[in-house]
Write a structure and sequence with these properties.
GO terms for molecular function: DNA binding. Keywords: DNA-binding. This is Helix-turn-helix transcriptional regulator. InterPro entries: Cro/C1-type_HTH, Lambda_DNA-bd_dom_sf. The chain is an all-alpha fold and about 110 residues long. It has 2 domains: about 60 residues, 434 Repressor (Amino-terminal Domain), CATH 1.10.260; about 35 residues, no CATH class. It has 7 helices and no strands. The longest helix is centred in the C-terminal third of the chain and has 20 residues. The radius of gyration is 21 Å and the shape is elongated. The mean pLDDT is about 90.
Length: about 110
Amino acid sequence: MLQKRMKELRLERGLTQNEPAAVLRTSREAYSMYENGKRQLSCQALAQLAQYYGVTTDYMLGLTNDPEGAPKLTADEENLLDHFRECDKRGKRTVLQAAIQQKKESEIH
């Protein structure tokens, strides 16, 4: 799947093999071998290509069909999640009920 995604991403952007090869600081010929499965891409090179194309490594590897991956949490969301995880079962239920009630109230207004 990696080779297929590499080629798809490159072609979708109208690039030749020269551009991603330059990102990896390799030749077009070497890049062609990666794209055709004749040479294995290193983890570092995979990460570089994912960043270059603006997708996740999971997407490139075919582990997900969502190129952007999970949305990033805000600082407030991380804080809430940290506190939620520290709650016991009853506390978690209370937090969830409060969130559901807040959502209902905001939909009314």
